[in-house]
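Summary for the steering committee. One of the milestones for this cycle was to obtain a three-dimensional model of the protein with guanosine-5'-diphosphate bound, which we needed before selecting residues for the alanine scan. The sequence and ligand used are listed below.
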Amino acid sequence: WTEGSQADADNSLTELAALAETAGSQVLEGLIQRRSRPDPATYIGRGKVDDLGAVVLAAGADTVICDGELSPSQLRNLEQRTKVKVVDRTALILDIFAQHAKSKEGRAQVELAQLEYLLPRLRGWGETLSRQTGGSGRGGGAGGGVGVRGPGETKLETDRRRIRHRIARLRREIKAMSTVRETKRARRSRNAVPAVAIAGYTNAGKSSLLNRLTGAGVLVEDALFATLDPTTRRATTTDGRVYTLSDTVGFVRHLPHQIVEAFRSTLEEVAEADLVVHVVDGTHPDPQEQVRAVREVLAEVGADRLPELLVVNKTDAAEEETLLHLKRIWPEAVFVSAHRGRGIEELRETIERSLPRPAVEVRAVLP
Ligand code: GDP
């Protein structure tokens, strides 16, 4: 459902489809319903559920993905009515994060987010959900029932207790790991090495830009969320000063709050930077909306106080008209193509100019 304009809904659905493909699904059909708020029982209107059922049947789909967060009962009702697995945007994003987390810390953060999502949804019908969110809940007591039957209450209580224990343990582990990172960061700041954080909507070209600026060889993927574990590289200014460049978690609209919570320590690292290079995809249908979504997350971790340098990327593929429009609304932005290398020198110079100058030490030499 949507209460926004048709264009907003289309963009959001296109993005949802891209997310689903990133997660390894093949997207068959899209369905939009305009209404002022979701139906409390079935998310989309009750009549619309029949349409959805017909679409599922005709397309031979095995999953329905909703572009929003479903309550546990909405999810259950939709699954019962459509007879296929139902996933919401949050579960989908969590799934992608799970596939992409590589570092020990990243994996722990994703598991924490998944368990927090799962816990309130364990309701005896947990079987489908626990399978879908990585098998952390052992909802298998139903012995092969078709999703609706679940484990008994005692089993559920044990599951909940186990999950709570695991959550507490993951929190401790993540805290310990972030302490190690803080120590490293403190060492960097003692050495007065300025830090530049590359932030931006997912798929905007952060990794490509990091590669361009440092020749780093970071994995670039045409997939949402290729970047999950932050990469830090050293770069040198033309006058020989060293600074660091890091890319960050890809941002996305409606980033589940469990993710923001779990990745807080990683995101907060952005807040320690001296400069945020905010990369925008010039080929996106609504770059301003992307910028808003990224700034929202930046504000949530206190990184909105930092100097921000807007960089519009993919000028090689963007419409001339769009670029002119963006130049008007963001006169300070630097326009680049990470692919072609266009504008990269100007970007490098702008970054260098924006870096804090090292404090000059003056020592008087006494005779
Ligand atoms: P990230 O998720 O922000 O790190 O984005 P990536 O660097 O992984 O790039 C996402 C996609 O955009 C990849 O398919 C890149 O090849 C593509 N891309 C990045 N920079 C450019 C560019 O300057 N022009 C074009 N046309 N595509 C780009």
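Key point for the committee: Residues 125-148 have pLDDT under 50 and may be disordered.
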